[in-house]
UniProtKB/TrEMBL annotation:
Protein name: NAD(P)/FAD-dependent oxidoreductase
SUPFAM superfamilies hit by this protein: FAD/NAD(P)-binding domain (SSF51905)
Organism (species): Streptomyces stramineus
Amino acid sequence: MSDYQRQREHVRVAVIGAGFGGLGAAVRLRREGVTDFVVLERAGSVGGTWRDNSYPGCACDVPSHLYSFSFAPNPAWPHSFSGQPHIRAYLEHVTDTFGIRPHLRLNSEVKALRWDTEQLRWEIETASGALTADVVVSATGPLSDPRIPDVPGLDTFPGKVFHSSRWDHDYDLRGKRVAMVGTGASAVQIVPAIQPDVDRLTLFQRTPPWVLPRADRRITSAEQWLHAKVPATAALRRGLLWAAREAQVSAFTKRPGRLRLVENFAKAHLRRAVKDPALRARLTPDYSIGCKRILLSNTYYPALTRPNVDLVASALAEVRGSTLVAADGTESEADAIVFGTGFRVTDMPIAERVTGAAGTTLAEEWREGMASLRGASAAGFPNFLFVIGPNTGLGNNSMILIIESQLNYLADFLRQLDTIGGRAALDARPSAVRAWNRRLQDRMTGTVWNSGCDSWYLDARGNNTVIWPGTTSEFRRVTRQVDLAEYQLLRVRSTPRTPARTEAAR
């Protein structure tokens, strides 16, 4: 071992990311008695996607009392659907309440991770220095790295260009000609928020989304007082919200025909807001509701009917100076372009930075699609766990429920390592990963998510590597404990200096 290696700081666990997943992992580690860990965060503060996405109108489309940790209820949510500032403040509160600040390494973007097959540990290079760890928890999240399409001529645009998750608050949109590219969850919130202030708003719509009313309301002070004084009432509220969404899962997974009622409701919502039949036709999707993410808004459709808004029912194809050209030939002028074009979900950038036991990166191993064991472990990457890994996404419920289930798996993973003792590592068996993913893809057949639309749930090969095709209660069951038969046990040997692979740990 070199002097440089000896000087490196070593920790039991290194967590990457300080959003919901990373902070949840940090809290769980402390509750399990593990204090020898760090949380590596590339930005200067916690919050993850709720720090990055600060665009006008940003809010959650999951009810507040369900979009929070079960171990950290917030009786003071001001709205049934909370806005970005309140969610970010909640995560700051969790960080302080559970003593996570001393473990934070801010401005410490992870540049590279490499598995040391001799020492059975991870070597980690960050923007603030190097360290090693026995276990790495990747909680970077799927909605962290924006995707901007490669539009010919974009570099010639003389105005302002930014992604919705990198909003430039120093640039004043008032009185400007603004082009909004994309019609996903962010765009549906941005359009009505900026429409009253801009001179002209041009929306480039490749595919119209299904939009339902957003039943948001202010939570009264009496309700907040009751939830604070009688916590069981908040727990009941959370439980009812959860149960209602669990009951919807079969419509997405087994009986998509049941969603026709929801589709008719969405069409009625569109008819009420948009009287122009031509505009309404361009806003009506041609795919089954639920195939893409269902959006919630009371203000999106009305904003599109305003005189200063133009809907271009086509993708942005080319930029010629300040002229934007759509795929259908439509031309428009703009002073600013805002991309609401999503994130790198099926090709997570962290995978390019992680080198496993075979000397290949996770991105190389995933060249035919993301695959993991129970959404947590990838074969050939020992002691490396995901929070919000492949096929853990939800189409109708709160991701916090998935996160907490994965924290159960993390806790048991560490317990198993402690029971084994010594310098040891667990590496998911390729056969176990294949079997798990074969079952997942079989279950995807017949689900609404695989019913034919082009969504961000599908990778370049058309495989759904994002969504969990079941209930959150089922996911909790299958991630409650680590099955050692699904792993290979690695141990350090003095001679030769290579890890020995045994049969499954007994």
